[in-house]
Amino acid sequence: MSELRFNELRGEQVAYAIHRQDRTFLPDRAHCPLDPTRPGHPPTEIPLEAFEIVVFDNRFPAFERPGGAAEVVVYTDDHEGSLGALPLDRVEALMWVWRHRYAELAAREDVEYVYIFENRGIEVGVTLHHPHGQIYGYPFLPPVAALELAADARLGGCAPCALLAREREDGRRILLENEAVTGYVPEAARWPYEAHLSMRSHRASLLDCEPDELRLLAEALQTLIRGYDRLFERPLPYVMAVHQAPTGAEAGAGGHLHIEFYPPLRTADKLKYLAGSEQGAGTFISDVLPEEAAAGLREAIERAR
Amino acid sequence: MDRKPGRPEEQERQRPESASGEDPGAPDADAQPAPGGVERLGPLTLRRMRKDDGRSLIAYSREPPSP
Hints:
heterodimer, A: alpha+beta, B: alpha+beta, 4-stranded antiparallel sheet, 1 helix, elongated
């Protein structure tokens, strides 16, 4: 069981999950725990010979009942590949799975915030290469979600709606757009190639999306990831963060479905480190202007089409 | 605020079933029971299982085409 302690200086919770020290770390190809269980082979985490998408409770949870949830979302039974390389209908199915998990976790009294995410690449600490994401059900409202609610208050309404309107009016940092989703590099991006996919209409969460919007979100997601992989002609590591409305005491206070990507690279082979200014002072210093990043990403997206 | 997100009619069905912490396998509002022990979820079907150590596992798949 994890232990929460409140860091008074930062005003934030820290979770201690010491059992996670023993979690599976970069196993060899023959021992991937997210592969299907093949006849005659040792069982994996998934007792099925084949599957499309599977969600299960994390064996090494950062949060668990009655203090939250930690789930693993396996996108495919194919060990190779990535979210960007899957068929579109599989990614569309994943949107429904995310929506379902959001609904079920949101209904739990021990979950205040449902956070869907993916860590891709060893540069961001991935421990299993099999295409998968994770879901945390936090038993408290985490700081980033709280900051987004504060931004709503500061801007006098839905902040992501206001920022999207600004970006569309400016136009220089727009990456892609379909009937439901706009992708852009934020005016004040913290990471060199940070990008956001935002629902064009106000949608607090996946629960508010129509089926067509889920398909269009899947399409935009793949377009961006495929572009990312063409940017430096290598699979781009990233953290993908799905932001939605809080589900607990702050439910109904705000939230706008958008997906943020934080790739840690600033060039094909150089990492952006979180160093003195970022860690000690909380101020990001970036080597790439968002307008230049957007131009490069637009070109990469075109090459990927 | 103490309202959970989602459509109001969904919440009435969701909260009593899963709030106790005793029944993580309870169906949610999106998922509807279907013949054969599976639930329907939009274009998907889902099947709930328990792993040997008690952890839950849900397998999602696209619905088979209608005959």
